[in-house]
């Protein structure tokens, strides 16, 4: 328990530092959201309207320390401010409308990539030196292709040439958003091509990592002892080799799940998918600091929580990581 307590304290300090940096960095950049929005009106606003805009975007005359205290209060209340790229929508509304799309797509793709990659890596590592090794260069080649180029090729072949899948979007515009089969089926249909792109492009990394760990684990003394005891090949493969070889991949998988909420920016842009990646891209283009702050804050906290969960589970899976 002391190990978990120390790690929890470390993550709490890290969260405080990340949130503080999230507050400071936009304020150290030149300009501010209120000024950028006011400039769009080219001097057509009155002094009262300009003052109201500055208060609306938190650019009033408060000191930096007062703004910092207010920032923490807004975090605990879930108030991230107003997005002027989607003005007058609050940042929380913009995030809630996009996070669900990203979680549905990228989470499923990350899990599929991990399961397929580690499963194939286990088989290839166990049967190293056979024809199964030819899978490694194929998957590495697919993973090395520039992500945006691979997505564009998928769109050109399957959406434009073959017309098997829709060209862009997350659902058909003639469906009503809600928990109904027409909308769900349309969302699944629109998500198949982006999902294939993400899985194919990322499965190679999981495969190569698991394959190398299997090769290393097969040379360990406890595996050789299991072979000398005459245990079945299946038990040696799963209970001795794969069980220990998957531990490093499990940590990477937990971190990958943490980054899920950040979306797959390139894929979402190419397919015009209504997820967090597209929102972050538009926020960066429009210099929407409140929206970028909200996005970075959520991504940071989710990554920290995912790593904390991974560390906790890892302690129970691998007794060697425990300290007296």
Descriptive overview:
The structure is a single chain. This protein has a domain at 103-321: MetI-like fold (Orthogonal Bundle). It has 13 helices and no strands. The mean pLDDT is 78. It is globular and about 85 Å long. The protein has 324 residues and is mainly α. Helix 1 packs antiparallel against helix 13 (289-317), helix 5 (91-126) packs antiparallel against helix 10 and helix 9 (221-228) packs antiparallel against helix 10. The chain crosses the membrane at residues 7-25, 99-126, 147-167, 187-208, 245-271, 291-317.
Task: Write a brief structural summary.
The protein has 324 residues and is mainly alpha-helical. The protein is 73% helix and 0% strand.
Unreliably modeled segments: none
Give the C-alpha Rg. 24 Å
Return the string of H and E elements.
HHHHHHHHHHHHH
Shape: globular
**Number of extended strands:** 0
The CATH topology of the domain at 103-321 is given as: MetI-like fold
At the first level of CATH, the class of the domain at 103-321 is: Mainly Alpha
* Tally of helical runs: 13
Average pLDDT number = 78
Tell me about the biggest sheet? Answer: none
Please estimate the helix content.
over 70%
CATH architectural category of the domain at 103-321: Orthogonal Bundle
| Helix and strand composition category | mainly alpha
Strand content: under 5%
Distance between the termini: 10 Å
Transmembrane segments: 7-25, 99-126, 147-167, 187-208, 245-271, 291-317
Family: Belongs to the binding-protein-dependent transport system permease family.
InterPro entries: MetI-like (IPR000515), MetI-like_sf (IPR035906)
Membrane topology: Multi-pass membrane protein
């Amino acid at each position: 328990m002391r190990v978990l307590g120390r790690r929890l304290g470390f993550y709490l300090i890290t969260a405080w530092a990340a949130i503080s940096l999230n507050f400071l960095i936009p304020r150290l950049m030149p300009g501010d959201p209120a000024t950028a929005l006011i400039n769009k009106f080219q001097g057509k606003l009155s002094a009262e309207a300009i003052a109201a805009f500055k208060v609306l975007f938190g650019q009033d005359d408060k000191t930096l320390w007062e703004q910092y205290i207010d920032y923490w209060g807004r975090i605990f209340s879930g108030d991230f401010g107003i997005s002027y790229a989607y003005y007058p929508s609050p940042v929380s509304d913009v995030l809630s409308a996009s996070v669900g799309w990203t979680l549905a797509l990228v989470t499923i793709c990350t899990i599929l990539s991990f399961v397929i990659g580690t499963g194939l890596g286990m088989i290839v590592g166990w049967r190293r030196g056979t024809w199964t090794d030819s899978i490694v260069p194929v998957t590495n080649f697919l993973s090395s292709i520039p992500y945006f180029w691979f997505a564009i090729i998928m769109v050109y072949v399957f959406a434009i040439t073959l017309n098997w899948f829709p060209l862009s979007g997350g659902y058909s515009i003639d469906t009503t958003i809600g928990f109904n089969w027409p909308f769900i089926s349309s969302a699944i249909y629109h998500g198949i091509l982006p999902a294939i792109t993400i899985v194919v492009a990322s499965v190679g990394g999981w495969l190569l990592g698991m394959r190398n760990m299997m090769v290393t684990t097969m040379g360990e003394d406890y595996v050789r002892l299991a072979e000398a005891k005459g245990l079945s090949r299946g038990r040696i493969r799963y209970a001795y080799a794969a069980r220990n070889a998957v531990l490093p991949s499990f940590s990477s998988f937990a971190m990958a799940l943490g980054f899920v909420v950040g979306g797959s920016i390139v894929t979402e842009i190419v397919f015009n998918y209504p997820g967090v990646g597209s929102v972050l891209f538009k926020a960066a283009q429009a210099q929407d600091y409140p929206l970028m702050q909200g996005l970075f804050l959520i991504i940071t906290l989710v990554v920290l929580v995912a790593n904390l969960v991974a560390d906790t589970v890892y302690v129970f899976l691998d007794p060697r990581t425990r300290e007296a």
